[in-house]
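Antibiotic biosynthesis monooxygenase
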Amino acid sequence: MFAVTVTFKIKEGEMSDFLPLMENNARLSLERERGCHRFDVCTDPGREDEVFLYEVYSDRAAFDLHLTSDHFLSFDKEVSEMIASKSVATFERVVP
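Tokens:
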């Protein structure tokens, strides 16, 4: 198992455009990528400019495949100007 967390800070006034694109990327990842097992898109009303992702893949190779998928590349291009900052962390399962 390979887990990925991503925290986005979204530029002011961009969340209403960003969130539907993010949700679509998550849906397509789950539908089209055999190695993608979970893709949660999370927000907190107290941090209106922040989006947190929790993704689970079979392994690092499945995540790397995700990064080259057409739907991810399209999403990444569409939202690049909406993002103020982005932090990514990856984790490999230690105990089965």
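The domain at 2-92 is CATH 3.30.70.100 (Alpha-Beta Plaits).
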